[in-house]
## 1
Amino acid sequence: MRINHFWAVHHWAPVLLAMPRMLRELAGDRSRGLLGHRLLTGSPRTYYVVQYWESKEKLYAYAAAPDMFHHRAWAMMNRKERKSKTRQHVGLWHEAYIVPEGSYESVYADMPTHGLAAATGVLPVESRGRYAADRYAYGAARASGGSPASTG
C-alpha cells in the first residue's frame, strides 16, 4: 500500500490495519494455505507484505471466501473508491508469481531464518550439492519425482 496523502489518516489507517488482521486470521487456520509472510517498508509512505502460499488455488479461495475478512475489507475499499472525494488517498497493488518447485534457490549466510526459508524450511547447502547447478538439479529432480544428476 502507498499513503498518497498523509493528512487523510481516516482513509489510509483502515487499509494499513486491515492486513495484520488478515494475517492473524490466516495464522489461526493454517489449512487456508498461507505458509509465511514478511512485512516490509520502502519508505514512510510505502508498505509491503510478501506472502508465501501453498498454492494459487488456496490464495484465490481465501480472497473470495465470504466468511473471511479479506472479502469484507475489499468490499469496503470498493465502496470508498466509488466516492470521488475519498479516492486517491491510499494506493494498493497486488502482484503474484507462480514458482514451481525446483525453480528457485535461497541461500542464507549468517542470517536468521528469513523469507522462503521461514515459510518452507531449511536444508543445509551441502545436502543438495556444493554448486548452484547441483542444487537446481536436486530441486528439479525432486519436483519431477526422479533422482538428481550430478554435475561434478
## 2
Amino acid sequence: MSLVTILAVYPFALLYDGLVAEYFRGWPLPWRTAVFPLFLAPLLTYAVMPWFSRVLRRWLYPEAPRR
C-alpha cells in the first residue's frame, strides 16, 4: 500500500510544484507548506486512493493459495 500511495502522490506533487507552488513563494514557510497537504489529503482520500485500490486490487490483495 505504501508503494501505491507513492505512485498516487507523485504526479500531484509534481503538478503542484510545477504549476501552483510558485504562487505561494511569498508566503511564510508554515503557511506555504500547509497548502499542499490541505488539498492533497482529501483528494487522495476520497478520489484517487479508492480508484487506485480498485485498479490494483488483485495485486494488493491476492487470493490465498488453495490447498
